Records
---
Amino acid sequence: MNFDQITEPLDLRLADGLTRLAAVARQLDWQAAEAAGLSPTQADILRFVAQRPAGARLTAAAAHAGVRKATASDAVTALERKALVRKYADASDGRALALKATAKGNRVAQAWSSSYAPIVAGLSQAEQELLLGLVVKMIRRLQQRQLIAPQRTCVSCRHFRENVTPGTSTPHFCAFVGAPMGERHLRVDCAEHESAA
Ligand code: SF4
């Protein structure tokens, strides 16, 4: 008997492990949302909007939360009733509406820690750096296959210059900041992100 014959394929075990971690993170999110008197979708949308002080479109918020536009619209109505979110005319398109968090909404959103924080806390600095590179890579692949809403990551940013000084600890360059960056500096949700597409 050898373990190659009795072990499930690597990708299946990895996917299984990630599913379990996602369930824990989701549960922590639900607990935080419930404590703030919000549904998980309302909490998702509030956090998304609070991270975009210039305003976020309803369609983008719905895609981020993984719900239909009508469901997102109901969640936004509930958030408006609770004075956590307001609708404004979008500065870039007078006919469209943008969502912005109120001061109260920002306070509520900032009080939540990331649901994955206790999960990654058990990893060393080097392991976290390695994992960050892999997570960014997975997000990029999902974006290329259009399986995830557009994310504000370095690898899809027009300011990102990838691997311009290979073999160094900071092989990449951010033209916005004007500084070299390493894998450990990659951002998953950068406020200065501008799509390269
Ligand atoms: S602007 Fe932000 S997302 Fe773009 S390359 Fe620089 S750090 Fe990354």
---
Amino acid sequence: MIEDHRILRGSKVVLRPLASGDLRRCVKWFSDPQVTQFLGRNTPVTLAEEERWFRDYLRRGDEQIFAIEVDGRHVGNLGLHKVDRVHRKADLGIVIGEPTYWSRGYGTDALQAALAYGFDLLGLNKVSLDVLEDNVRAQRSYDKCGFVREGLHREDVFKDGRFLNVVRMSILSREFRDRQGSAA
Ligand SMILES: CC(C)(COP(=O)(O)OP(=O)(O)OC[C@H]1O[C@@H](n2cnc3c(N)ncnc32)[C@H](O)[C@@H]1OP(=O)(O)O)[C@@H](O)C(=O)NCCC(=O)NCCS
């Protein structure tokens, strides 16, 4: 049997490539204010927009989006964006779209699996992300994975009538490996 390297296994979650059949669920999440309050984006998306985005995504080679599954249920997405083979870096985004699955360790587990894939299989040196300054749960999860605060984009996002600061965080390959070594 041929192993699909894009099926990533954490201890609690499985990550598999996002498929067109998942898009309806994504539209639901990205139209839910409970979820979107934590994201840089403001507007709800339509299925047509999401399908157009997915077609473009399949044509591009610099992005990999995974569906996060818990016990076979698709509960969120994780993306490696702007994968840069020259500078060996990428940006990461994650959303668990089902709020009942928040704060149960799934996000951190998905992040660890994606970082192992990015560093070990894609050969990345650095993975970065942006997070709204008041999104403390997400930052706690990133801290647990070893991301460090790299800087602050002041008043970078306008949301619900106010400008919000955005924190830039990153982790290097050697930092990830050191943490894995000390955890073993
Ligand atoms: C951010 C997200 C991916 C994290 O995944 P998760 O499964 O909820 O996170 P985890 O359970 O692995 O870790 C969250 C940690 O934050 C803690 N936490 C939760 N709410 C908190 C709060 N209000 N203040 C401080 N810590 C908080 C949890 O207790 C946990 O830490 P612990 O393990 O030390 O107890 C998920 O919550 C999510 O998708 N949220 C909505 C969208 C979003 O914010 N995306 C990220 C955009 S940058």
---
Amino acid sequence: MDKLAAEEIYYEMIRGRAFEYAAKEHYMQGDISGFLHLDIGQEGLSVAAIKAFEKGDVFSTYREHIMAMARGISPKAVMAELFGKAAGVSEGKGGSMHLFDPSHFFYGGDAIVGGHIPNAVGCAYARKYQNNFDGVMVVFGDGATNGGAFFESLNIAAAQKLPLLFLCENNRYAIGTEITRVAPFEKQSHKAEPYMPALEVDGMDAVAVYKVIKDAQAYIQKGHGPIFVEAMTCRYEGHSMSDANRYRSAQEMALCKARDPIERMKRVLTERFGMDEDAIGALEAKAQQEVDEAVAFAAQASEPAPEALYTHIFVEGGSHALS
Ligand SMILES: Cc1ncc(C[n+]2csc(CCOP(=O)(O)OP(=O)(O)O)c2C)c(N)n1
Ligand SMILES: [Mg+2]
């Protein structure tokens, strides 16, 4: 990774964390309703994976604000979506879990755990049919790997040699359920091993994530078929805003935070690329300003018009094949 990429990734990580704290605050103030799942602690994984997967299509879970922004969707459009405003990326009708923008080849956000994995398989099938091997990346949690759709997807992706990158964000919890209570092993990559190459990476290390995803995309682009990457990570907050996070001890949380991805990336910038504290401070100020502007934008934006209730329900005219 060169200095430019490292700086960009660090910037988007700190902007992501500031964004998530702002979303939390505005949720508590009642500006945001519905569900809200924060990605604090997992920023390095979200940003580096998306930046590394340069071309191609992305399908994600509901913990996707930072990934959507890393794909190029503006913080204003994401925050406005959280506020339920018409200027939101899904026109205010999707909310936090359904950030959807085909112009950025970013197809959500899905509220159904693992429900988006078969959708990504379908997209990968279409891309192969179109002779396009940039690939599809599908991001899901450790909990999602216990569902039937996940295994069916591994099977068909391998049988059809589809250009599909499975990225498992293993934060060891599905809401309050610790992974070994519902799976026979900690590493979910074991489930993929019979079907395809399965790699592991430290999800708290953005530089390592960037490299492994670049390599995985190169593998797909050669037409070898699917590949699986498991990134071990840690979320700092509760599962969603209604989870007080009481099932993890203070000691477990301290161990998590000792691996903080932002502090780690900051050390890459200072020690490897010689950036000084002033330059880093300027990035932090800029990130906070961008988030403040996104909140101000979302707060003053208009609600969707009542007629919007009747659109985006059925396919309206024309072909909706992937472009
Ligand atoms: C099919 C389905 N079952 C259950 C739920 C309720 N639910 C929402 S999130 C979640 C946990 C998923 O955990 P994981 O896949 O590890 O993702 P994480 O939240 O840790 O990122 C559950 C069980 C759901 N949304 N969909
Ligand atoms: Mg999980």
